Amino acid sequence: MAIATINPATGETLKTFEPLNDAEIATKLDLANQAFEQYRKTSFAQRSQWLQKAAEILEQEKTDFAKVMTLEMGKPYKAAIAEVEKCAAVCRYYAEHAADFLADVAVKTDASHSFVRYQPLGIILAVMPWNFPFWQVFRFAAPALMAGNVGLLKHASNVPQCALAIEEIIQRAGFPEGVLQTLLIGAAKVADVISDDRVKAATLTGSEPAGASLAAAAGKHIKKTVLELGGSDPFIVLASADLETAVASATAARMLNNGQSCIAAKRFIVEEAIADQFEKLLLDKFLALKVGDPMQADTDLGPLATPDLLQDLDQQVQVAAKSGGKVLTGGYPISDRPGNFYPPTIITDIPPDAPIAQEEFFGPVALLFRVPDIDAAIKLANDTPFGLGASAWTTNDQERDRLIAEIAAGAVFINGLVKSDPRLPFGGIKRSGYGRELSIQGIQEFINVKTVWVK
Ligand code: NAP
Q: What is this structure's pTM?
């Protein structure tokens, strides 16, 4: 895949970039390594000051950064602004809490003095996706840099200007040179970078094949990885739910980021007693969405990020229809305009055991399933290779407790749409990956937990 800015709303190639050659990659690795030797000795207070400054830059220039995101990957501009604000929030969160999260922990033993000390590992490679091109990077970088690690960012090939802008923000914030560097390289070079002795660990957010490939390369060199992969998250609506609120959230949850979010609700599992009503209300909401230019303030749904994604989604919908699915609205790419536009789509009646029902639909397509009761809802929700974040709607306390206990996922949100929040850990189980980002758990992923025993 070429490293380039191609406007997904028009198909126009705006800028192309030469990938780094081997000598240039080696220079960046040298610089990262030298930077770590000094940076590891800086205080939490100093790192916190730099990260607060990064938050200020993000806030002051949020419109510029948001425009770059929308231009490169097509998310609605208003959502891009919110994403920059969230990046500022995660910077502030770790700037304020990292020192507490990583403070020595005393433990009573037979020593005169024993404790646990948290120390940075060194260079961490971050392989990141295009769908939240700022947020995904900052939620890695804020804790990693506060912990004293340094980062190398291999961003997705379709968001090079976002990647370069992020590197510049960190530099302008005052962090020493080399603490976070962007590597403009293709996916094929990732294994080489991981094999370098100076790179100590890696994190990847993206697809299953990419995650498996990175983990295999890292495993060969005994290096830790964190993987945030795909999802086909359930959105369960039981008969006791507040239906109007559930439908409004269902629409937002599916359309978030033009339908391209790992934690977007993808399978809507509705109790039979209210299924007709839910279906009708959801259809009304989908039909009311405004599809169009993502730079316009009133646009609800912009284009998919690349032509390949459009083609893949189209194919999946055709397979779903052939497998017995009934398309209530949408169902074909929008062909009367340039760009990668796909309309809001609802598919009902897919047999739950059809292979296509197990796949992640990465676009504005909702799959609707009817179930007789909560037992069937939980069973269907869990009948997936993924386990990222589930949303479930009920006003009944017993139902709520069962959903919390029995849903197999990294997160369960009751009466709310699944979202990430710096204060709460984020991550999946099963084929959605392993490890956690955000919160105290996130900052402790790339750390040497050093046991100290003194007599
Ligand atoms: P992708 O193709 O896996 O790309 C993600 C990143 O991995 C890009 O930087 C890509 O580089 C790189 N990459 C691709 N193949 C690789 C390989 N074999 N070895 C090393 N690196 C490789 O993912 P995508 O299709 O852009 O993103 C969509 C997927 O990400 C969905 O499944 C979505 O659910 C998941 N996602 C998960 C989370 C989460 O937090 N769990 C968040 C967002 C997205 P190139 O661009 O150069 O190919």
A: 0.97
